[in-house]
Predict the 3D structure of the following.
Amino acid sequence: MPITTKKKFKSELLNILNERGFIHQTTNGDAIDKYFNSNEVIGYIGFDLTAKSLHVGSLLQIMLLKWLQEYNYKPIVLMGGGTTLIGDPSGKDESRKILDQNNIMMNQDGIFKVFKKFLNFDDKKIIIENNLDWLRDLNYITFLRDFGKHFTINRMLSFDSVKLRLDREQPLSFLEFNYMILQAYDFWELKKRHDCRLQLGGSDQWGNIINGIELIRRVDRSEAYGITTPLVTTSSGSKMGKTADGAIWLDEDLTNPHEFWQFWRNTDDKDVIRFIKLFTTLPMNEIQKLESLQGSELNEAKKILANEVTKNTHGNDIADLVHKSALETFEQKIISEKLPIFELNKKDCIDSIGLLALLVKVGFSKSNSDARKSILNGAIRINDHTISDPSLELSKSDISKLKLSFGKKKHILLNLGL
RNA sequence: GGAGGGGUGCCCGAGUGGUUAAAGGGGACGGGCUGUAAACCCGUUGGCUUAGCCUACGUUGGUUCAAAUCCAACCCCCUCCA
């Protein structure tokens, strides 16, 4: 049975993780505590390679790995090159589309880039693995005989990821059904290769983690451990990091650092302190000071959150620039030179460009119709003046250093490029 | 293989020949109020050269002046039976 962890640990790191809200469930708390105290902890988290990079939704897991390194334990990043070929049904109410190997390889590169930003890649500090290396060559019969015998269908059917699909009368293919077995096998394989005895993951991974632990117990008669993190939702109940524009990515090419900073700055009051604990490494005594903030004072905490996370993700210089740009734009209400600059291609503006086309070009609108509606809604401003005429033409000489705004929060400076 | 049920916009879901670009809700976005918050109120939510036109209700054909709605075939999903 899952044990919800409230009590104090002997291990300092576990205490910190607990205090900061990283721990949702642990397998046998005492044993984990002992493990953390007496061994070189090697813990792994698996990452799907379903997208070209990682977004804010994965940040919690990355922070966990960071904390492990902080305490001189060794994290393993497991790239799911093999399992992504199958697709994890956990938490999904319908099948994922199946990716081909080429895409997966490209995704891996993008995702790797993110880890480089957050984690220490010095020798011996981290291990990167890809489960394709061992899953690719599995022999079906051998695998079934050696490992399949340890799994009962009865038990597999009892997992939430399976039940959800069955209850909703949605299909769960045999392919996906096998995912949990392969993830259990991954754990066993990492234990064999690196003596890794700890798997971390989101709360939706609990079942998969338990499977791995049991597999290790049955095959090797040895002990392994699991910790899950809470599913981080905003107080309005939605998953972290998803907006209408798509996810908030941890890659500056996919999500502009200005937008990234704004995402954190706009955190709901009720979430700020929780997020600072989870997504920054600010010491707890400083966080405690922030906890007493009330009402609009919380805006200070939000800025700290935004600054800290942006620093970790994009570096000090960029965080600084973006912060200043926000201060100028939102507090001093001046046209900040530090806003993101959109270079308009010269051939898109021979003599002039229509506002509708421009809005689509810079990515504020998805179509001319959409742009037209936004204008009618009063969403568009140029140099802080609301524009109401959809047929507005901007001449070439107007363009330079024009501030174009969509809503209250999206601002860019236009510049005519080459 | 047999019997029944079903496939509608980002999601849920109504609609069974014309008044349907498709009710209602959710989500999202914009505006107002505020603290770049929450709550609340208002608006928008297929595309275009926007008083008009075009494309859309699993796919392809058909009936009809007119189809998401009727017919046929096919594809997919669910339940029960073999």
Observations:
- Residues 36 and 217 of chain A are 19 Å apart (CA to CA).
- Chain A is about 45% helix and 15% strand.
- Residues 169-171, 235-236, 238, 243-245, 262, 265-270, 272, 295-299, 302, 326, 329-331, 367-370, 372-374, 376-380, 390, 406-409 of chain A lie near RNA strand B (CB under 10 Å from a C1').
- Residues 101-118 of chain A form the longest helix (18 residues).
